[in-house]
Amino acid sequence: MPVVLPANQPAERFYRGGARIARFRGTPPGAGREPEDWVASTTSVHGQGEAGLTRLPDGRLLANAVAADPEWWLGPKHVATYGADTAVLVKLLDAGERLPVHVHPDAPFAREHLHTGHGKTEAWVMLEPAEVRLGWSRDVGADELAGWVERQDADAMLAAMHVLRLERGDAVLVPAGQPHAIGAGAFLVELQEPADLSILLEWDGYAIDGPGTGHLSLGYPAALAAVDHRGLTRAEADALRTADAGTVGDLLPGAAGFFRAERYRGDVAWDAGFAVLVVVAGTAELVTGGGARLPVSAGTTVLVPYAAGPARLERAAGLEVLLCRPPA
């Protein structure tokens, strides 16, 4: 059976937000520091125990359920390639303030220094317009970056980054190693490798101990080696963005080795496999090969396991849905 997932918002995050998630889901607003909704998550907040993990309606953690029967959830082909690893994490993110400049390590760095199998390449699908900063606009030397971080010179960092003014429906790939900062007011669906690994380049003014916790316990001299120092040309930065809000099907062709994000409007069908649905607008009926029929509407998030069989959305009315899946 598909699993309808309620909000899963870790409390007391270091930046403000959450009101847009509440409106999207039709739930009461929280205290204002629940800016992330971790959907179908087998990943915990770094250093915070079970925070961020999805709990199923029967009380089990999704991570434990997948580990107990990975082929039921993920399928034999996925398990043969990735093991009992969902290989994708989906979030709703509501930036009530600009996020600090930060970066995520890639998989080779994470394996060598953090002894984990994933880095954190991510992508955004915008639900509202926003401005973001992504990638250096010129080469930034290691000493120059280290000086900015030590002095907390956020103005210098932001001035050296590309500005992308995104519209609703735009999709953006954020490769690991690229510095970025999501602007205030952004509301988006985020796909990422299933790891919570962030290195803060900026922390001044945020409710977090950057010198103590912003470097993944590596210390900043080691952690900053995860940053890509090469400046992107404007064409390279723009190429990370799929700017046509009318695009349906694959939104992130360059991300296929990490995850898949597809947008559909109207009736649609797909093969059996682990999938997370985010219903952005409208209504439909989710029908699976296992015989399940489930009405869905805007604000609904649904986990469809491999065992549900081929699935389809039918009787769509004003439907816009994001289908989030692991790499093929």
Largest sheet: 8 strands, antiparallel
Tell me the number of strands: 19
Total number of distinct structural domains: 2
Mean pLDDT: 97
Helical segment tally?
10
Write the layout of secondary structure elements.
Blueprint: E1 3-4, H1 19-25, E2 36-39, H2 62-68, H3 70-74, H4 76-82, E3 89-94, E4 102-103, H5 107-114, E5 122-126, E6 130-136, H6 142-151, H7 154-159, E7 161-166, E8 171-174, E9 180-182, E10 187-192, E11 199-200, H8 210-213, H9 220-223, H10 234-239, E12 241-242, E13 249-250, E14 260-264, E15 268-270, E16 275-288, E17 293-297, E18 301-304, E19 311-325
Could you characterize what this model shows?
The two termini are 22 Å apart. The protein folds into two domains: 3-242, Jelly Rolls (Sandwich), CATH 2.60.120; 256-325, Jelly Rolls. It has helices at residues 19-25, 62-68, 70-74, 76-82, 107-114, 142-151, 154-159, 210-213, 220-223, 234-239, and strands spanning 3-4, 36-39, 89-94, 102-103, 122-126, 130-136, 161-166, 171-174, 180-182, 187-192, 199-200, 241-242, 249-250, 260-264, 268-270, 275-288, 293-297, 301-304, 311-325. It is globular. Strands 1, 13, 14, 15, 16, 17, 18 and 19 form an eight-stranded antiparallel sheet that branches. Strands 2-3-10-5-8-12 form a six-stranded antiparallel sheet. By secondary structure, the protein is α+β, with helices and mostly antiparallel strands. Strand 16 and strand 17 (293-297) form a beta hairpin. The chain has ten helices and 19 strands. The longest helix has 10 residues, at 142-151. 20% of the residues lie in helices and 30% in strands.
